[in-house]
Design a protein that fits this description.
Blueprint: H1 22-38, H2 51-54, E1 62-66, E2 72-76, E3 82-83, H3 89-99, H4 104-107, H5 135-144, H6 150-165, E4 170-171, H7 173-182, H8 184-196, H9 203-214, E5 216-218, H10 220-231, H11 246-259, H12 265-271, E6 276-278, E7 283-288, E8 292-297, H13 308-321
Bound molecules: glutamine.
Length: 331
């Protein structure tokens, strides 16, 4: 069957270990139908914290799904590149846990904040970041990754993200430069953590490694595989590589469930019911434990920084595939 609309082409062929045939086509049709169902959902603003994000086309809309058999099924603008931004945070946490033999779990809190992602706030009493899904936490986890200096850590982070995605990725240096220049709140958080004794590298080093991590270019297909790697015990289903241990993957997915959508995490859990991470670029990455990874891309954001169409799409996907963690009627 030929697809009349090339923008909703199935892209399973991108995967070297795709599952074949009818099942994929069927899933592609279902994804394409879900996209069509949310295309007219309005509202939201494209982020303009750095000029490169402001240039995004508000109409871009893509989704991808990665399954344990290594297949990746996509629809819409699933190969449109964007900077990963905060969707990198679960993976930074995973790499920090791996590189510190788990000690990173005590370096950051794991409780939701009820505040914005860039709130200038540390845990009372300990001076730790509240959790690894807000900026303070991600600045610290980026600093805990092996590498000696900021360049070394940025390289280790990039290699780690490549392992999660199962394909080459690169840093957009312009985005990283803008993040470094305009990320005043991140600089403030790094200095605050220095003053509390919780950050052990220079403030500029921490912001630089984090800014470069946020500037890694991905697309919905790559992000879906990354989410699947966490969902499937830390093993990349496309390459077969064990990227992090199953215990680390479980820790990370647990914190995604409680803190991944910032102060919208409660509503997200009720409506979608899947551990996820949002990002100012308009991406969402989902890890459905033991089942699959998924990602969407649509730039307009609600006031909490969640993609408006992405959230509507993922609510539909969760319903369509029965992904809600707390579906009490599941057999
Ligand atoms: N780079 C952005 C920042 O640090 C990422 C934030 C986000 O995606 N929520 O502000």
């Amino acid at each position: 069957m030929t697809d009349p609309d090339p923008s909703t082409r199935a892209s399973s062929a991108a995967s070297p270990r795709r599952a074949g045939g009818a099942r994929d086509d069927d899933l592609h049709e279902r994804l394409a139908a879900l996209l069509d169902g949310v295309r007219d959902v309005g509202g939201g603003e494209v982020d303009d914290s750095v000029p490169q994000l402001a240039e995004a086309d508000p109409g871009w809309l893509g989704v991808a799904l990665a399954r344990p058999d290594g297949s990746v099924t996509a629809a819409g603008d699933a190969r449109q590149a964007f900077s990963i931004q905060s969707a990198v945070k679960p993976f930074l946490f995973a790499l920090a846990l791996a590189d510190t033999d788990g000690a990173a779990i005590d370096a950051v809190g794991i409780e939701p904040t009820g505040e914005a992602f860039d709130a200038i706030k540390l845990e009372v009493g300990t001076g730790r970041p509240p959790n690894p899904m807000v900026n303070a936490g991600a600045l610290l986890t980026a600093a805990l990754v092996d590498g000696g200096d900021a360049d070394g850590r940025a390289e280790r982070i990039l290699r780690g993200l490549v392992a999660f995605a199962g394909r080459e990725l690169e840093v957009d240096d312009d985005v990283a430069g803008s993040e470094m220049l305009l990320g005043d709140r991140n600089h403030a958080l790094a200095h605050l953590m220095r003053s509390e004794g919780t950050l052990h590298v220079g403030a500029d080093d921490a912001v630089s490694a984090y800014a470069r991590a946020c500037a890694v270019l991905v697309d919905a297909e790559a992000l879906a595989v990354m989410g699947a790697t966490l969902a499937l015990g830390g093993r990349n289903s496309v390459t077969g590589e064990q990227v992090v241990s199953a215990a680390i993957a479980r820790d990370v997915v647990s914190v995604m469930a409680t803190c991944g959508v910032y102060d919208g995490s409660g509503r997200w859990m009720r409506e979608v019911g899947v551990p996820a991470k949002s990002s100012v670029s308009g991406a969402l990455v989902l890890s459905v434990p033991g089942r699959l990874g998924a990602a969407s891309y649509s730039p307009p954001l609600d006031p909490l920084g969640t993609s408006v169409r992405g959230a509507a799409l993922m609510e539909g996907l969760s319903r369509e595939l029965g992904l809600h963690s707390f579906d009490t009627e599941r057999g």
